[in-house]
Amino acid sequence: MVQIVALIGVASSSFTITVLSAALPDIASDLDSSVTVITWVIAGPLLAFAVFTPMAGKLGDLYGHRRMYLVGFAAAAVMSVVTASAWNAGSLIGARIVAQAFSSATGPSALALMMKVFPDAKRTSVAGTWSAVLAASPAVGVVVGGPVIDATSWRTLFLIQGAGMAVAVVAAWFVLPRTERQRDASFDLTGGLLLAAGIAAVLVPLNRGPAWGWDHVGVAGLLLLSPLFLTLFWWWERRVAHPLVDLSALRGRNVALPLVSQLFMNGPYMAGLVLTSLMLAAVFDFDTTAISLLIVPRPIAFSIGASVAGRLVARHGGRTIVVTGSALVTVGLVAVGIGAVTEWLPAVVAGVAAAGAGSGFSRPPIIAALTDAIGDRDLGVGTGLLNMTSQIGAAAGISLLSTLVHDTSTATRFLTVFAIAAGVGVFAIATTAAIRFPADLVAERQPASPTAPYSATLHHRRRARPVTELIGRRQ
Predict the structure, then answer these.
(1) Which of 49, 190, 201, 257 could share a disulfide with 222, CB 3.0–4.6 Å?
(2) What is the DSSP-derived secondary structure letter of residue 177?
(3) Is 141 in the same domain as 158?
(4) Residues near 449 by Cβ (< 8 Å), separated by ≥ 6?
């Protein structure tokens, strides 16, 4: 019962992702804004997710995961209603960011609660169900949300989401078990604020630079402040007793390279979702329902790819599967661009599916390499860092690449932007090829969700090794 309740909440928080990206043109028109600004409806929450998920996980460890789940979903439900009532682009983006900040508390807490109530032998099954729900939820959102938006308004989508979250909160109050508080550690609020400031000072100028001008005082000022905030964050984390992020873990090759690869692959991958939606509206003149249905193959292909990745790794090796998957993402982006120029829809659909499958293939082995390198005792640090870099890459990719297209962009312009995204993906391919995939790692058949940083790929290891030994050996 705990698993069902936890998954209801998780599904309600993620089912809007795909259909919302398809509705961006309609939202921009309704709020009398540009598509470039409205893309922050997706990019902003991704940023909030990247910053607040590690902080939320730490809060759950300190103050109890049940408490964090209830508080996070109750606040997110309220913010969904506020989002539905947005009166302009600024209020919509702000409400989405706040809602996602609260929702970020539910992911790590829900998974932690599920793992606590099941024995070790059942944990792989639990994580598999978790991943399957998170992968399928956006597709269900398309089936339900697309027709709802076309028949009523995009605002109805957030009212439905809020109702689902409210149900999850009520059920969780009676079902979820209590977890103990940790009284021997404190929360690193200063580190969290410095990290949030540093990331925001990079992404906001990337999005607003083309519109305001790169010499605008706000754009230039934030770009100058960003390295200061990040340097202060680095300095603070090295000295605080209980840091938000354990920076010493970054020195290992199989820690740093997976993080870098996800930073540069998730950027074009997530930007491709937004760009595809904009292209289908501008070039093919499709409505929201048609666009969202054409995007559905992406999460489905991801789920299938991730499901078979474990067996393929056991047969062909981690490097082969990861490089192949990363290459599929890159090829898929190019295929969508070619489909735009030729106005050949099968090429677009094939490209969307290829990108989803490629990401599904590559993510489980990368998680495996990272978790093996960082050791079981520091597994939370590793998955938190991987989630953070993945979401930062997504937010940066969406912000930067979306500024290269306009509300009236031609097919040729879209092809150019997709080619740029593919070029970034090539760098990610080279990075993944340099990862050392452990020969003694046996990957299980385990999906990894495209939308959930805490969906884990579990692995058996011959011997659990401390992080200090691994870092020293792999340098």
Answers:
(1) 201
(2) P
(3) yes
(4) 130, 131, 134, 135, 306, 455
Answer whether 7's CB lies under 8 Å from 178's CB: no
Mean pLDDT value across the chain: 76
95: CATH: 1.20.1250.20
Shared domain check, 273 and 196: no
Domain limits at 216?
A: 188-241
Q: What is the DSSP string of 83-138?
A: HHT--SHHHHHHHHHHHHHHHTTHHHHHHHHHHHHS-GGGHHHHHHHHHHHHHHHH
Number of structural domains (the chain) is 2
| pLDDT tens digits along 360-376 | 888 877 877 776 776 54
Report how far residue 72's alpha carbon sits from residue 46's, in angstroms, rounded to the nearest whole number: 16
Contact call for residues 103 and 48 (beta carbons, < 8 A): no
- Domain end marker among 202, 224, 241: 241
Does residue 402 share a domain with residue 448? yes
- Say whether both 234 and 305 belong to one domain: no
Whole-angstrom distance between the N-terminal and C-terminal Cα of the chain?
45
Query: Do residue 260 and residue 206 come from a single domain?
Result: no
| Nearest-angstrom CA–CA distance, 61 and 345 | 48
Report how far residue 79's alpha carbon sits from residue 98's, in angstroms, rounded to the nearest whole number.
7
- Give the model's confidence band at 441: pLDDT under 50 very low, under 70 low, under 90 confident, else very high: very low
pLDDT at 225: 93
Same domain, 341 and 256: yes
Q: Could you tell me which residues come within 8 angstroms of residue 51 by beta carbon, excluding any fewer than 6 positions away?
A: 101, 192, 195, 196, 199, 388
H or E stretch covering 437 = none
